[in-house]
Amino acid sequence: MYRAVVIGVFVAVVILIAADLARRVLLRRAWRPIREADRTDWFPGLVRLCVNLAGAVCLVAVTVTGFTAVLANTPTLGGYLLMAHVTTAGGFAGAALAVAVLWVSRNWIVKAEWERVTERSTPSATPVSLTVLMRKIFFWVALASAVPTLATALLAMFPLASPAQQQVLLEVHKISALLLVVCSVLFAYCALAAEWEQRRN
Amino acid sequence: MRPSIPILSMLALTGILWFSGSQAEAQKPLLGDVPSGSRSRPVHVIALRDENGDTIQPNDHQPLPFSTEQTCGNNCHDVQAIRRGWHFNAALPGTPAGRNGEPWLWIDSATATQIPLSYRAWPGTYRPEDIGIGARAFALRFGGRTPAPMESDAADSAQDRARWSVSGKLEANCLACHDRSPIYDRAEYARQLGLENFRYAATAASGMAIVTGSSSKMPNIFDYLLPGSVEDSLQPSIPQVHYAEERFLAGQKAPFDIARQADSNRCYSCHTEVDVALPGKESWKAGEDVHMARGMACVQCHSNGLDHAITRNYEGDPAAGGNAFAESLSCRGCHMGSANGQQSAGPHGLNAPYPKHKGLPAIHLEKLSCTFCHAGPMPSSKTGRMKTARAHGLGEHNANLDADALPHIIGPVYAQLSDGKLAPYRAVWPAFWGRMSAGRVTPLNPEAVRRLLDSRKLSRPAPTNGNWPSVDTAWVKQVLQVLNQGAPGPTEAVYIAGGKLYRLDSSGNIKAEESAQAEPYLWSIGHDVRPASQALGANGCEDCHSTKSPVFFGEVQVDSPLEQFGTWKMNHFQPTVDAAYQLNLANSWKFRPWLKATASGAALLLLLLFLGGAYQALVGLSSRISGRRRDHV
After folding, report:
1. Are B88 and B147 contacting, i.e. CB atoms less than 8 angstroms apart?
2. Rounded Cα distance, B611 and A100, in Å
3. Burial of B182 (0-12, 13-18, 19+ CB in 10 A)
4. Distance between CA B565 and CA B558 in Å, rounded?
């Protein structure tokens, strides 16, 4: 069941990104970029680049080690793969925090975006970039799912949960990790797309 | 004159009635086999019977010893059914062997022999009759440490067969387990067997009588019913029974303190196990199984019905035979409740504590047996040695209390056997002389080897402490040369010891090889069970997941007269455990505190960031809603 969901979600994400890319390429002339509202950068460019790269690498590593067993239909994640997953997870935890700190200032949802979210029309005078808005939404969902993903793994490492409770923790970890990976990938895609939009503007 | 049809009919009818009557008689349950259900102890004031079924009067002239099978079996207990029970059925054909158990260890220090024997088909043991050890030799050596019956078998020599009629056969000894009397003396039982007083042993042990004399001194023609027929010089050694008349009640019946469920003290007679350092002055330091310390008895788990098929309490035990109640008498059955993980009251309604196993990933319950963490002595970097009642005669007269006395039982060895789970085992390294043919070694009869070495003055004096003799490979070479002289057919003499097979090469030099038959024989450690606070893991994951963990990286002591200080890696006994992976995992554990700190800090800060964002969202929503209200106003 979980394996089917993972495959379905991963395929959906790939299709979504491919479709958006196609849309952007095909409608390039008609498309009018909008400048990101309230853009505040707290960190210099090189730091941003390094942190983003580290976050991306750790995300790929933890995703590959975590989902290989699921995709390969192995009953449990164990052995060297588990060891690699746990090792990369430590790096991922640090990198995720760094990325979150780096991006949080740019992902506060501003008034115009709230209006876009809560109203069907865009009554605000300030134009809102949908790409930026989606980036912000995926950022916050990824942030929200990172907490249970880390917390469940942490709780399992302390003498707190019985084997049956650990199974529950594992299930929560698997679901929140899937959400985290999907939202992180879409956040990264939206961030790149928004950056591209800004440069075209 | 031809018989008329009515007469034939009457004869046929009589025959049918007689046959049906005898069938009903045969199926009629015996008095003791249909308990009323009363929990009180049944009174046993019974007439003693000799092996022919005749009652015994204590003041008879030259009274005979009583027979347990006749006394207990006469109209009361189905002894033939009981003899198919676990303690009695080892030699019966078709008996499921079950998982490996403690073997009988035949030792002979002079020939550096230590060989595991069993009538059960346990891999790694040898059936006594297959190596020329007859039932008589077996009974003389081990009969005192089992309640099992023994009688002449095909491996007995003509001399041995003649001796059985002198000593009598060894009956199933019901009293060994069921006699609760404080004067039942199982050491006396073993002593009587040493004197070849097989038919007298139970009587002597019961305290009902004193037995004097020794069948071992009687000639082959000795008839116990006509004891006076031997020559005068042997008269003082004739086995005689002197009943204690004060033990008999009116009617010449004797009261026995018989318990339906055997007292644990009786079980300990044959099933005691102790660290080699703890017999003697240090015995007061010995621990106890947590179940016993909590007031339980052995038979509450190792239980049986009238068939005496005592459960061994591991999952898949054939003694349970599909009986759901018997199958539930296991660690999981009592402590883990029903299959769906819900706690139950357990098979006896004792409400065994449900293990919390806090912090233990579920995979441990799949890969490890319960005993891995909870049974046997705590492991150390190198295996220790233990003594058992059956191997060392603990509790018998003149038992050798020296820590180095053979046989050498090693443990705990953490190994994977048939079910693939890691569990603690005892181990014994086989050491014997044999003949190899087509890669298979058949042990030589140890007594024949002893006689041969004695004749060639090659047997070694046994050390007084009962340890291995002082020998070397030169001695092994000499013995192999002797054994190869006149070897039958294409066989060659070999010596197995300490995990190696020694043989002579084409130029007559000795060489050592690997051999599966030289591997130690392993059997499970089920006791003493340690509670959670003393289990592996009570001090944290590092009990096992550290680079010095004895369960993965410990050393198993090699025991051999040729090499007493060698070791094998524990991992040798764990075929599906990747030692390199376990080492890497153990090394990675050093960074686990860092991982915990990093992940905890990151999770906390991410939560704070998220809460900050959520706060901002709430403020935004709130202002938006209040703004809309103002618009309406």
Report:
1. yes
2. 13
3. exposed
4. 7
Residue with the two structure tokens 């190596």: B131
CA–CA gap between residue B192 and residue B198 (Å, rounded): 7
Q: How many Å apart are CA A123 and CA A112, to the nearest integer?
A: 9
* Residues of chain B neighbouring A167 (CB-CB closer than 8 A): 362
pLDDT one-digit tens code per residue, B574-583 = 998 999 999 9
User: Distance of alpha carbon B287 from its chain centroid, rounded?
Assistant: 20
Chain B residues lying within 8 Å of A103, measured CB to CB: none
Between B468 and B624, name the one with better pLDDT: B468
Angle at B553 between CA B552 and CA B558, to 5 degrees: 105
User: Do B199 and B65 meet the contact criterion of CB atoms below 8 Å apart?
Assistant: yes
Contact A143 B609 (CB under 8 A): yes
- What are the DSSP calls for A126-137, one per residue? S---HHHHHHHH
Query: What is the C-alpha R_g of chain B?
Result: 32
pTM, 2 dp: 0.87
What gap in Å lies between CA B567 and CA B565, rounded to an integer?
7
Provide φ and ψ at B266, rounded to 5°. -70, -40
pLDDT over 90 at B104, yes or no: yes
Which run of H or E residues covers position A48?
Answer: helix A45-71
Integer angstrom CA distances of residue B350 from B190, B242, B293: 37, 46, 15
CB–CB contact B613 A140 (8 Å): yes
Q: Residue B243, SS3?
A: strand
CB-nearest to A147 from B591, B610, B616 is: B610
CA–CA gap between residue A114 and residue B620 (Å, rounded): 7
A35-50 confidence digits (pLDDT tens): 555 555 666 677 888 8
CB-CB contact of A80 with B589 (8 Å): no
Q: What residues form DSSP beta bridges with B385?
A: B410
**Closest Cα of chain A to B331: distance in Å?**
17
Please tell me the distance from the alpha carbon of residue B340 to that of residue B330, in angstroms, as a whole number: 16
Question: What sign for the dihedral angle of Cα B572, B577, B581, B584?
Answer: negative
CA B135 to chain centre: 19
Contact in structure between B296 and B334 (CB atoms under 8 Å): no
Cis peptide before B528 (omega within 30 of 0): yes
